[in-house]
Amino acid sequence: MDLLPLLRDRYSVRAFSDRPVEPETLDRVLSVAGISPTARNKQPQRLYVLESDEARAKIAELSPCTFGAPVVLMMCFDRSEASDSKLNPGYDFGEMDASICLDQVMLAAWAEGLGSCWVGMFSQEEVRVAFDLPESYHVAALMPLGYPAEDAHPGPMHEKSRPLGELVTRL
């Protein structure tokens, strides 16, 4: 397995084809949600798959960044189930756990030929109320998912990054 090309090639897709995502393909992508690492293996993440016309229309009203995708993932975590840290009070392990999980789902999707885009542009409270989520649930991110449109391409900043020396400090 060569992971580096996948990591280098993946980009945020903001234009999707109307081709539906096959259930077996989606199932393979979603299967990594249960094997992603979480603090103390608490697994507080809750992944909602918005694929019905009604659910996708509802989330499209609440976020301008669904890009017409045939599937939108809504990653939540249950604050009441997330690990806590006595050594690092206030550190949000639920947010970390959900982010790790969604990142792995995003990479699995790319490996299956599906594009995605990490979205944080939504009102936490409006989404929670619209989907009748429990009070203890926090919506960490949305992720439109589907086959990239023929004219989809990486954004202009895709190839730009800071020099490694600015990002990494060796001690």
TrEMBL record:
Name any one Pfam family assigned in the record.
Answer: Nitroreductase
The question of whether DNA repair is a record keyword is answered with no
Span of domain Nitroreductase? 7-62, 66-147
What UniProt keywords apply to this chain's record, in alphabetical order? Flavoprotein, FMN, Oxidoreductase
Compositional bias per record (Basic and acidic residues), positions renumbered to this chain: 152-163
Instruction: Write out the transmembrane intervals.
Output: none
Write out the similarity annotation.
Belongs to the nitroreductase family.
Record-given protein name: Nitroreductase family protein
Name the source organism: Kribbibacterium absianum
